[in-house]
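Q:
Just now I want nothing more than another pair of eyes on a protein record. Here is the record:
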Amino acid sequence: MQAEQDLLVSHWPKPLKSDGKVKVTIRTAQGHTVAVWVTYSRRQGPRRAGKRDAGVYAGLGLLGIDDRSTPALAAEVSLLAAMLGSLEEAQDVLAHRGVELDTKTVRLIAYRYAARARLEPQMESTAFEDSVAGRRVVISSDGGRIRLRENKRGPKTKKGRRRYTGAWREPKVLLVYVVDAEGKRAARFAPVIDATLKGPDAVFALLRTYLQRLSIAQADQGLFIADGAPWIGKRVPVLVQALGLAAAQVHALLDLYHAAQHLGQVAALRQDWSAQARSRWRNHQRRLLLQGQVEQVIAAVRDICRGRNSKAIRTHRDYFVKNQGRMVYAKLMAMQMPIGSGAIESTVRRVINLRLKGPSIFWCRASAEAVLLLRSYYKAGRWNLLKRMATSHLALLQT
């Protein structure tokens, strides 16, 4: 163990020197505290008065101990933070188990746990136990809504607090799952779920990493399904090219129910029609979509582009024209593949809405990123994978 510590310190990016042994108190998952003596290594040079030197407990890092908590305790705290509705609830459950931690400590442990798992080297080097080779894969992405606490410029309040805005922001969610020969989700393959607030490019970079690790190039069929959001549609072809997928191997589809929603909005704009006529027209056009007659649907919308709502109807017509190539519902139904994006809609609700969205709930960006990651892996059933990513000694020492 001592030899491994010395080797680790000698290969550290910046030179370190031993500062002698230090007594450190470690918290365990059983609620006990254990005092250990461990070597503390810090950067070379004189100590700076009033400032904390950047150093490392190499021995604790090799044992998977960070934030003075054992790996079992850190994993349990992070799991409860993801599973329950708030950090206070996690604190209460831990207290019932005999582990006394304040809310600030629970937050520190959980958020640093997520930060270690999110490190790029960990994301790229940790291998999945399963792959999608020879399987039929469905890939989807969508956005949710949460409110972020963003500081305002200017004077503080009378109590000395910073003023802030509660702006709505859109975290992006990705989902990868496998379907069987009948188009139903394969229960033996745990889906891949992740989410981030960093924008479309970041979520598609994550998606590319996950698909490469899942051996997407060896999949039987791949289906990218989503709503008509431009940030998704324009990035899917780039991702397909980057992954090296063959044209016959991958399909892109617009969610049928979003297309049907546009048909309903077109019918509603015809105020000279009765409610029965609107319903009949909408249902007929929906059947044409399912039969693969997209050109007829576009022609039908074009034929009613008149009157005072003609401009709004033309907007919906352009929607169908732009997405015509992604409305191959008859082909995908014949292949027993999904034609709706209900899976990603449900994922957004379970990952974001039930944990991060609510009345008077405002998040700091870093805190939201941490909970999004923990919650995604918990809901996907891949918590053990997250534990491997967060407890690697390389991840511990890089943070």
